[in-house]
Specification:
- With 145 residues, the protein is mostly helical.
- The protein has one domain.
- Helices cover 76% and strands 0% of the residues.
- It contains six helices and no strands.
- α1 packs antiparallel against α3, α3 runs antiparallel to α4 and α4 packs antiparallel against α5.
Length: 145
C-alpha cells in the first residue's frame, strides 16, 4: 500500500469533520443562541442582519453538503469568507489563542485553512457527487478515444 491509495479516504475524513463542525456551529446558532440572538450579535458587531441568516444557512446546509460530499470544493470555498469574517469582526481583538477571553483567532484561521485544503483535495471517497464526477470523467475519456 502506498500513500496515494489513502488520499481519497484522507479527504473524506477531513470533509466529514469539517461538515460536522459547520453543522454544529450552524445548529448552535439556531437552537442555543436562536436566530434572533444571532442577528442581535451580528448587529452588535455592526453587521447587517441578513449576514446572520446567511451564516446560519451556509453553516447548516454547507455542513450537510460536506458530510454527504455534494459540491465539496464549492461549499468549502463558500465557507472561507465566514471564517475570515469571524476573525476580522469578532476574534481578532482577542488575540491569537482561542482560549483567550472572547476566543482568539487561531481556531477560525485554522478552520479556514482546512477548508481551503479540502477545496484543493476535492470530494474524496464515499461522496455523492464524487460518483457523478467519476462517471462524467469516464464518459469524457470514452468520447475522447
Amino acid at each position: 500500500m502506498n500513500d496515494t491509495n489513502l488520499n481519497g479516504y484522507a479527504a473524506t475524513v477531513l470533509r466529514v469533520a469539517l461538515g460536522v463542525m459547520a453543522l454544529a456551529h450552524g445548529l448552535l446558532k439556531v437552537i442555543v443562541f436562536t436566530p434572533a440572538g444571532t442577528v442581535g450579535f451580528f448587529e452588535s458587531l455592526g453587521l447587517p442582519a441578513i449576514l446572520a441568516y446567511a451564516t446560519i444557512g451556509i453553516e447548516v446546509v454547507g455542513g450537510l453538503a460536506l458530510i454527504a460530499g455534494v459540491y465539496t470544493r464549492y461549499v468549502a470555498l463558500a465557507m472561507v469568507p465566514i471564517l475570515l469574517g469571524s476573525i476580522v469582526f469578532s476574534h481578532w481583538q482577542a488575540g491569537w489563542l482561542f482560549s483567550n477571553q472572547g476566543g482568539g483567532w487561531e481556531y477560525p484561521a485554522f478552520w479556514a485553512v482546512a477548508l481551503i485544503v479540502q477545496a484543493m483535495l476535492g470530494d474524496g471517497a464515499f461522496a455523492i457527487m464524487g460518483r457523478r464526477e467519476a462517471q462524467l470523467a469516464q464518459h469524457e475519456r470514452a468520447v475522447a478515444q
